[in-house]
Design goal:
The complex is a heterodimer of chains A (335) and B (159).
Chain A: E1 2-8, E2 11-15, H1 35-45, E3 53-57, E4 61-65, E5 69-77, E6 80-82, E7 85-86, E8 92-95, E9 100-103, E10 108-116, E11 150-152, H2 158-168, E12 176-178, E13 189-196, H3 205-213, E14 216-222, E15 226-230, E16 245-246, E17 251-253, E18 261-263, E19 270-271, E20 275-279, H4 284-288, E21 295-300, H5 303-328
Parallel strand pairs in A: 13-21
Antiparallel strand pairs in A: 1-4, 1-11, 2-3, 3-10, 4-9, 5-8, 5-10, 6-7, 6-9, 13-20, 14-15, 14-21, 15-18, 16-19, 17-18, 17-20
Helix pairs in contact in A: 1-5
Chain B: H1 3-15, E1 20-25, E2 28-33, E3 41-43, H2 48-53, E4 56-58, E5 67-69, E6 80-84, E7 89-92, E8 108-109, E9 114-120, E10 123-128, E11 133-138, E12 145-146, E13 151-157
Antiparallel strand pairs in B: 1-2, 2-3, 4-5, 6-13, 7-9, 7-12, 8-11, 9-10, 11-13
The chains are: A alpha+beta (335), B mainly beta (159).
Chain lengths: 335, 159
Amino acid sequence: MSINVIRPGLLATIQDLGRVGVQKYGIIVSGAMDQLSLRMANLLVGNGQDEAAIEITLYGTAFTFNHDHLIAITGGDLQPTLNDAPIPMWRPILVKKGSTLTFNSAVSGCRSYVAIAGGFNVPKELGSKSTYMRAKIGGFKGRALKKGDVLEIDCLSDRNQLFVEQFQSIHSYPTWYINHSEFNSFQQIEKIRIIKGSEYEFFTEKSKQSFTNDHYQLTLEADRMGFKFEGQPLELNQAREFLSEGVTYGTIQVPANGQPIILMADRQTTGGYPKIGQVISADLPKLAQLQPNHKVTFEIVSIQEAEKALLQLENYLKEILLGINLKARTGGIAL
Amino acid sequence: MNTERLKKIIKIIEQAQIDSLCIEENGFKLSYQKNTMSTSTVSDHMSHESLYTDPIVHTSENADNLIIENQPTKEEDVEFQEITSPMIGTFYSRPNPEAEPYVTVGSKVSEHDVVCVVEAMKLLNEVSANMQGEVVEILVEDGQVIEFGQPLFKVRGSE
């Protein structure tokens, strides 16, 4: 069982939930930019939520399937087509051997995820299948997908098998799909909730005002490592030097030019720029789906609110899992 | 007879293996027919007009005016049909908050057209028209919790 890459598009990589636990050796985490969409794609095909999927960026990627497969597409809407006919997202889809799946151009969001029942048969490096392109480890040969690559699919688990059987009986596509709009949205102006960073108090009052009242626009310098924004410059109330310390997904750094940078999935492990804020975990999926030139407004919330939002997100995923179990009639067969 | 009690009785009837039922209590009369070809009504002082315009359970301050109408009758109102909910859940008229509604009053629908979605367990279930015609009334609101079999749209049928 395998799929062929006909066109890699702008950027397509294999990503799971990341290479955690090795940042102390300077190894970056990587993983899916929009982890919520990745997890939901996996749920739809009966995989574990941490299974690797293909992350497709903006446009142009195309695959053919060498066997019948159960797949699910989530994330940004890149107008996917199957054999040139539009196919719906956020639901399980059985694709026939020889079919071609194409991602055209992004109408909303920036990144789509394609999960496949069984998952990708690539070796785990340091505990993860995620592609770390700069170090050339993980994923498919440590790099972005190229034309002609053949991606092997793992054997189906009992649960995968059950999903395939259940959805085989459906005439075309299932008539249900995930209500993704609670934590994923694909707006041109997103409200991103943050908590204050450790150096927040060192910024001038004017900067603090601008930070939460003005729009910041995502520049073209936006990749898997970090998003550079443009807006009212943020200034420190006096020149200071900071020791480098640990940074994480969503850390908002402000270099000397005053334009904020948000660290993303392929972020470095430490940083020395002052940190004005930290994006709350529940809003990272929205952030990850921003297209260049789209804007954000930042809203400061308390740690308690941030935790509450994250718990809501996890409960929401649990409910989706239960709902899908009912649809797939999994009975007692767990992940 | 209050609405809650009435709902309970109807639920029991629906689950039971009976086709019709007649109850009389303190001048209150309830007759229930399961067959889709006939009307289920509750009345004692019932206005003829409201019987055919009000969907499902209609209540007013006065319990005497309780009216239930599940299906169009054989004799009258053949012109109108109702699209009912296949499940319990939350009604949404559009696939996501940013999208246009699937249908509005005046929309022409045919059998396989999706007319709305019903959310349960964070999954959105598409509801098909299963009939051909024109939507003349939307009987529920966005975000409203709906029950199995509840009428959602009134449709003027066309052959």
